[in-house]
Design brief:
Layout: H1 2-18, H2 20-30, H3 36-68, H4 72-92, H5 100-104, H6 119-124, H7 127-142, H8 148-170, H9 172-218
């Protein structure tokens, strides 16, 4: 019962934020020069990175931020600005970058060049999901709920989220084949614009929290 409660808490809080289904068009837009096999291998690496990042955020994220003197709003601002930069780059990307020659020219050793940054952080596991994972872990530790069953449930929740990332990213190219070149161009450009908007919103959330804390401190 305790493990199931922890599992449901992780899934309900983090899955909508990670949103691998909604992130798959972004992933395609940023990896349009990769062949299908390379993209699937890259998806697996992103899956592993995302799992480790979420687990680390849940169990030790609070202590890391305290050690470096970083607040959650600052993490949100930094991550939001990175998302804005990524979205803008994808929005301005030339259509010629999606041709077959470009996909075949990538060296196998370069497949994982962007696996962690920017495809894992902040595209997949961004400041929003990191903040929530840290908050959940801190709350569990504060309430003395980090016993084996709770940990098992949390780990299972992270595994399921990671699996969904692999399925959505690894087979996103099938969506591209169904929609065709024009359809994917529309989706990738729209996704890039939305990524800019999401980045601005995340950065604003962090800025708003900092301003509110400043007002309270002055008052």
């Amino acid at each position: 019962m305790i493990a199931a409660k922890s599992l449901l808490l992780i899934l309900s809080a983090l899955f909508p934020i990670v949103d691998p289904v909604g992130g798959s068009p972004f992933f395609l837009a940023l990896t349009n020069e990769y062949a299908s096999e390379a993209r699937r291998a890259l998806s697996w690496r992103i899956t592993i990175n995302s799992f480790l990042l979420l687990v680390a955020s849940y169990f030790v994220g609070t202590y890391i931020l305290v050690f470096f003197g970083i607040s959650l709003p600052v993490v949100q601002i930094g991550g939001g600005l990175i998302l804005v930069a990524m979205g803008w780059a994808a929005l301005m990307q030339k259509e010629e970058g999606t041709d077959k020659t470009a996909r075949q020219s990538i060296h196998p050793n370069d497949i994982y060049g962007r696996a962690f940054y920017p495809l894992t952080l902040p595209l997949t596991v961004g400041p929003g999901s990191i903040s929530v994972a840290i908050a959940l872990g801190a709350n569990a530790a504060r309430n003395h709920q980090l016993h084996p069953l709770t940990i098992l449930g949390a780990l299972l929740g992270f595994v399921l989220i990671a699996l969904s990332i692999f399925l959505c990213y690894g087979f996103a190219d099938r969506l591209a084949r169904i929609l065709g070149r024009t359809g994917m161009l529309v989706i990738t450009k729209l996704s890039a614009f939305l990524l800019v908007c999401i980045g601005v919103q995340i950065a604003w959330n962090g800025t708003k929290e900092l301003l509110e804390s400043l007002v309270l401190h002055i008052g």
